[in-house]
Amino acid sequence: MDLYNKVEINFSNANQYTQKSSIQNKVRQILLAETLRYSKLLNYNHIHKILNLGVRDLSEPLELNKTFNPNKIDIGDIAPPQNAKRIKNLNAYKLNFDKDLNIVANDYDLIFSNMSFQWSQNFENLIKNISSKLNNHSILAFSTILDNNFHELKDVLRINKMHAESSILKFIKKANLNCIYNNSFYLNKSFNNFREVINHLKSTGVNTYTGNKSNYNYKKIKQLYSDQKQFRLSYHIGLFICFKE
């Protein structure tokens, strides 16, 4: 099965995403606050058109709408929310942002994405393509997973390889964007046992493996299932706010 189809299926099946995605929601609040702060520092008060990429539910575009009061918000996701048509200034696109950005406009004042770009199979090209979708004097704000994500699981499960913060900064520079803010940090989530960890990964749709390893550590997995010990999972987060001159 095509990798992008796997991502779509797993996110479509993540019917508890809204209830279980506390980490993603926390990151979104931080990213949104920093985006608003830097838009004010830049005296940037003309956010009329927004592209919101990687939208799991409507709470994110609704927050963007409330914060910036744009004329229009376009949302794009490989598995977009079903009820997007109910909001009058919202347009929803079913798209793969690695392949289908040509179907959206080229004149956005803000492109906003929370915890989604890590699914790209060509991150450098994605940033370049997104840059071409921005107006001059506009903002790209995104968060993504970084290279030490879920390090507690690296000897147990197949863990997706993520980019380092330094690599992403190079991609931003190559796309002729000015990174005016970046930050990396960890957010930890505790579980009563390993089974809860697996359920969490499935319920938030992040259980798609994008690499090419074929082996698990079945012995270690069996041990963790039987131990019934508490388990901590570390999300390694990167935040980036970029300005297009």
Topology:
Elements: H1 3-12, H2 17-20, H3 22-41, E1 49-53, H4 59-68, E2 72-77, E3 90-94, E4 108-114, H5 123-131, E5 134-145, H6 165-174, E6 178-191, H7 194-203, H8 218-227, E7 231-244
Parallel strand pairs: 1-2, 1-4, 2-3, 4-5
Antiparallel strand pairs: 5-7, 6-7
Helix pairs in contact: 5-6
Q: What topology, given as strand order, has the largest sheet?
A: 3-2-1-4-5-7-6
- Report the strand count: 7
CATH architectural grouping? 3-Layer(aba) Sandwich
Write down the domain tally: 1
Sheet with the most strands?
7 strands, mixed
Q: Can you tell me the overall shape?
A: globular
Helix content: 25-40%
Structure description:
This protein has 245 residues and is of the alpha/beta class. The protein has a single domain (3-152, 159-188, 235-244), classed as Rossmann fold (3-Layer(aba) Sandwich). Helix content is 34%, strand content 26%. The chain contains eight helices and seven strands. The chain has helices at 3-12, 17-20, 22-41, 59-68, 123-131, 165-174, 194-203, 218-227; strands at 49-53, 72-77, 90-94, 108-114, 134-145, 178-191, 231-244. The longest helix is centred in the N-terminal third of the chain and has 20 residues, at 22-41. It is globular, with a radius of gyration of 18 Å. The model has no long low-confidence stretch (mean pLDDT 85). This is Biotin synthase. InterPro entries: SAM-dependent_MTases_sf. It comes from Francisella uliginis.
